[in-house]
Structures are given as C-alpha cells and as structure tokens.
C-alpha cells in the first residue's frame, strides 16, 4: 500500500516537472536557433538597426521593437481608463449580485479568439479611421484600440480582485471620518490596491506584447519607423509569423532571434508583475 | 441634563432578520452611555444606526426616528459625511489607515476643507493629547500608523475621530483586544472626553460599563431590556435577565 502511494506521488512529481522541462526545452531550442545570428551581427546591430531586408542579409529589428512599443503603449492607454472604471464600479458600487454576474461576462472577453478581434478591427475600425482620420486603415491606432479591448479582461479582473482584497475596515474607517464614497475610493482604497492593479497592468502589457493574430490583421505590417498614429507598423510577433513560412538560413535564425527578444521581454514583465504582487501582500 | 440623541421606536432589519426591536432611548449630553449585552444582541448594529454606517450594507431596512439635537438623521437630504463628522466612531479592531500617524489624524479635517498647516498641526497635537497618546508618539508623527502597538493604534483611532471635532463619539468595544494597561489608559481618556462630548460605549466588559458608564442599557436579542444609571443596574437591576447577565449566569 505504502509503495503504491509512493509510486503515485512520484508519478505526479514527474508530470509536474515535465512542464518545467518543456519550458526549458523551448528556451533552449529558441536560443540554439537564434543566438548564432545575434552573435554574428552583434546585439547592437540586431536590436538597434532599422534595416530589415533578409534578402540583402540585413537583420535589424528596431522598427519592429518600436512598432510593438507603440501598439502596447496605445493599448494600455485605451484599456486603463475603461478597465479601472469597470473595476471600481464593480468592486465599490455594485451589489454582490451584479458583480457576480458581470465579472464572469467581462472575463469571457478573454475567451474570444483573437482572429475575431482582428476581424472586428478590419470590418468596423478600418472604415471609421479611413473616413474620419485618414490613412489606409491599418495603423498603430487601430491595433491599439483592438488590443486595448483584448487586454481589458486581464486588467479589470485583477483590479477587481485587488480592490476587493482591501480590508473592509479601511472603508468603514474612512467613511466614519466623514469621507464620501468617492473620497474613500480615491484616498484610501486605490492607494491600498495600487500594487495589485499595477501587476495587473503589467500582465496586460505582457498579453499585448505577445498578441499576434489580431495584430497581423490590423497593424499593417510595414517595416517602417512610424511618424504618426495612423502609420502602419509591424510588431515582433507579426514579423515571426509572417516570414517563418519561407525563411531559411540566416533569415530563419534572425526570426528565432526575434523570438529570443520577445521571450526575454515577457519573462522580465512576468518577474516584475510577481515581484510587485508579492511586495503588495507583505506590505 | 438635556437629551442629545432621542431614539423613538427604532426597528432595524437585515433582509428578513429583525435585528433591533422597537428601541426607545434617550442619550443625554455629556454622559457616557454604556451598552451591554451578550453577543448578537444588536449592540453594534444599534451603534451603527447612530452614524448611519449600516447604510453601506445593502438590504438594510430601518423604521423609527433618531433625533440628534432634535433633527431626524434619517430624514431625506441629510448629508452622510456631515453626520459622520458630527457623530464620530471608533471600532473594535483599531484600523489606522495605511498612512503616517499625522496623516491619519488630518485625513478627516482635510476632507472637510481644513488646509492651514498650523491649524492641522495644532489639531494633531491637541487630539493626541486628549487621547493620551501624544507623549508616546510626538517624536515620530510621520511614521506609519500601522506600526504602533494595538493599544496605541486604538488611541490613534480615538484621536483621529476627535480631530473632526464631533459632538458624539461612538465606541464599539474599543478595548476588546487590549491589555489592562492600555484599557485603563483609554478609560482615563474617556473620562476626560465626556466633559466635551457625548459618548456611547458598547462593551462586553460589564466591569468597564460599571467603571465608566453614567447610564447603562442592557440589550438582549435585539430588545432593550433595561435602562438606568450604572449604580442602579449594577446593584439592584429591575429585570431578572439583567441580573443573570451581569452576575455571569448566562451570555
């Protein structure tokens, strides 16, 4: 009986470890495929050059880094006011019943396939932007709006949880000192929930940086340094997905190297999010 | 002495649960009224009707009248921040806001529009002295209020409610988590404070009620069983249930 217990325990341990092994294998594989070209071109030549023309052997991804940064920043700007308002309303003003109904619905937004978001962008936003702001349609702006909606559930849901985690006694203490509900939220509850909300935002950034399908459909994918919000850009993820099909040799390696940059960015963002979240718990 | 608060036929329901049953009670100015009774007898709920803090819980229903200086505080158009500045509250668990000692005290006055630095500093010193805390913290006013000991935190909470210059102070078992020394410091503070304020003290400690209370109300299962002066209630209570409770036979 005892040995059977041990066997089950051991089996579960192996399965648990295998997920870590998979992560390590992916990391190793990307490094093995991508690192040689970075070493050859030099980190500076790879990250700080804007020339991306694989046929001529030019592998600089700065334009894509800038594209990713613009779209991510735009997405956060679009998403933050919406998701914070949502979270504040649902946590502080709505009844538990309304909260219990609406929160899962908002989280459902995360379950919509990203190709559907891209499709909505093409069908609804392209004509709007073309008619009212100019440009062709595919642009930083389009991608920011759509991505902003895509990361809404991540930030909203984490923000609601952090607001709900603020001790009820803070609310009562503040109210009993003659504060209005809004003053209480602004001066006591938001500051107390700040770390949790911040880690939600960073996870949202991570999602935006990693999003591929919707971005390919609506960002335009031109390898240029954008001069306005209406310019089309290409992101790091789009670069890989668009060219991997036909890439060989150095070109293929350069795409894997783009993957390394993405991989490291996401890992750093996750570490920051976890550090902040842990700091919030300990105070 | 004149009546500061008059409670007429007060009923309170949470959903269908009848928490307070037809309470009639007059609270006199500059007295300490202690409210005693076993757990779940409605003491805390009663206290929270006096500054309308029950209102933040949904599904609460109230009937009857509570007159503060003759004005019905449940009348339409009463400003809750205004009421809560007039009727301060100290909770069972001391919870300073996650700010410095100084900021905890000036929080309320600032919201009320007091901005002069001199005035705020004066308020901090005055209220901390009234709460018998000044000497212990005067050198570290800008350290976090949550770093103080339990007894100090509770006196900080008393000080911050005084900073609003209220007329009535509600205390909900303020000494329940404190050691005897801290308790006696708070009782000493209360004794001084009643010269200026009207105090309603909910306590589980009948000895404390006897020590500091001028009058005592005994609550049981949402009913107010008996009301009278401390000497009377603790020596010759009229009701058998009151006697049973204060002699420790139940509750």
Structural class of the secondary structure composition of chain B?
alpha/beta
- What is the number of strand segments of chain A? 2
User: Any low-confidence stretches of chain A, pLDDT <50, length ≥5?
Assistant: none
For the sheet with most strands of chain B, the description reads: 6 strands, mixed
Q: Measured on Cα atoms, how large is the radius of gyration of chain A?
A: 23 Å
Q: Biggest sheet of chain A, open or closed, and with what strands and sense?
A: 2 strands, antiparallel
**Termini separation of chain B (Å)?**
33 Å
Strand order of the largest sheet of chain A: 1-2
Kindly report the name of the CATH homologous superfamily of chain B.
P-loop containing nucleotide triphosphate hydrolases
Give me the strand/helix succession of chain B.
EEEHEEHEHHHHEHEHEEHH
Of all chain pairs, the largest interface belongs to: A-B, 21 and 26 residues
What spatial form of chain B do the alpha-carbon principal axes imply? Answer: globular
**CATH class placement of one domain in chain A:** Mainly Alpha
Structural domains of chain B: how many = 1
Poorly predicted runs of chain B = none
- CATH names the topology of one domain in chain A as MetI-like fold
Total count of strands of chain B: 10
């Amino acid at each position: 009986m005892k040995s059977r217990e041990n066997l089950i325990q051991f089996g579960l341990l192996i399965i648990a470890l295998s997920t870590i092994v998979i992560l390590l294998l992916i990391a190793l594989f990307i490094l093995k495929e991508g690192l040689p070209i970075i070493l050859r071109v030099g980190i500076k030549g790879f990250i700080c050059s804007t020339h991306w023309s694989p046929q001529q052997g030019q592998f600089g991804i700065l334009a894509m880094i800038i594209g990713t940064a613009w779209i991510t920043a735009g997405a956060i700007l679009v998403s933050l006011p919406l998701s914070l308002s949502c979270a504040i309303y649902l946590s502080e003003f709505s009844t538990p019943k309304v909260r219990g109904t609406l929160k899962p619905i908002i989280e459902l937004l995360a379950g919509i396939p990203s190709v559907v978001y891209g499709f909505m962008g093409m069908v609804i936003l392209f004509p709007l932007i073309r008619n009212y702001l100019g440009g062709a349609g595919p642009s930083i702006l389009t991608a920011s709006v759509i991505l902003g909606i895509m990361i809404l559930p991540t930030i909203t849901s984490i923000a609601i949880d952090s607001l709900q985690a603020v001790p009820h006694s803070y609310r009562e203490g503040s109210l009993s000192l003659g504060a209005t509900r809004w003053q209480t939220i602004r001066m006591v509850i938001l500051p107390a929930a700040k770390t949790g909300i911040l880690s939600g935002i960073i996870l949202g950034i991570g999602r935006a940086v990693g999003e591929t399908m919707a971005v390919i459909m609506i960002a335009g994918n031109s390898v240029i340094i954008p001069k306005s919000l209406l310019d089309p850009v290409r992101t790091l993820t789009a670069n890989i997905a668009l060219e991997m099909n036909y890439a060989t040799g150095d070109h293929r390696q350069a795409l894997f190297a783009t993957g390394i940059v993405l991989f490291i960015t996401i890992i750093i963002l996750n570490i920051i999010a976890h550090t902040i979240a842990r700091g919030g718990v300990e105070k | 002495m004149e009546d500061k608060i008059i409670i007429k036929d007060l009923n309170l329901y949470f959903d269908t649960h009848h928490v307070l049953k037809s309470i009639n009670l007059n609270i006199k100015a500059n007295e300490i009224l202690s409210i005693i009774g076993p757990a779940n007898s409605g003491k805390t709920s009663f206290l929270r009707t006096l500054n309308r803090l029950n209102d933040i819980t949904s599904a609460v229903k109230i009937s009857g009248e509570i007159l503060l200086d003759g004005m019905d505080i449940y009348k339409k158009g009463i400003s809750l921040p205004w009421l809560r500045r007039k009727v301060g509250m100290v909770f069972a668990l001391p919870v300073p806001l996650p700010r410095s000692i100084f900021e905890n005290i000036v929080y309320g006055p600032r919201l009320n529009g007091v901005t002069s630095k001199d005035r705020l500093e004066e308020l901090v010193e005055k209220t901390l002295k009234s709460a018998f805390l000044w000497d212990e913290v005067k050198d570290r006013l800008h350290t976090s209020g949550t770093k103080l000991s339990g007894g100090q935190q509770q006196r900080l909470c008393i000080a911050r409610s005084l900073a609003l210059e209220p007329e009535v102070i509600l205390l909900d078992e303020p000494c329940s988590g404190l050691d005897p020394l801290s308790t006696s410091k708070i009782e000493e503070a209360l004794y001084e404070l009643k010269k200026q304020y009207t105090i309603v003290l909910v306590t589980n400690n009948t000895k404390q009620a006897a020590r500091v209370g001028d009058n005592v109300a005994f609550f049981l299962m949402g009913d107010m069983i008996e009301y009278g002066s401390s000497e009377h209630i603790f020596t010759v209570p009229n009701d058998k249930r009151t006697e049973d409770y204060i002699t420790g036979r139940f509750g």
